[in-house]
Amino acid sequence: MKGAVWLVLIACVGMLLFLILKKRLGIGWLVVFGAHMGLAAIALYVINYSGWITQVYIPINPVTMGAVTILGLPGIVLLLGLKIVLFGQAI
């Protein structure tokens, strides 16, 4: 099983490198992605520790960071909605 996981990981990295080199994207997309990731972390930190929403805590982990990085502000609203609906926490 571990061999299959490593094979899939290597194949995905290979395809990603192929696409980056084929499109000649350069380093600019990494800077933009890094900026979005940093802003997502700051937004989650502000939501968790500012006291705006006191009953809901959104953990800062790769899944939540990815959702907020890709979706932006709607990603935060999505995570808050999922937390409230799935775990029954009221705001």
TrEMBL record:
Transmembrane region(s): 6-21, 28-47, 67-86
Top-rank lineage group of the source organism: Bacteria
InterPro entries assigned: BofA
Keyword terms: Membrane, Transmembrane, Transmembrane helix
Pfam families: BofA
Name used for this protein in its record: Pro-sigmaK processing inhibitor BofA
Species annotation: Paenibacillus polymyxa
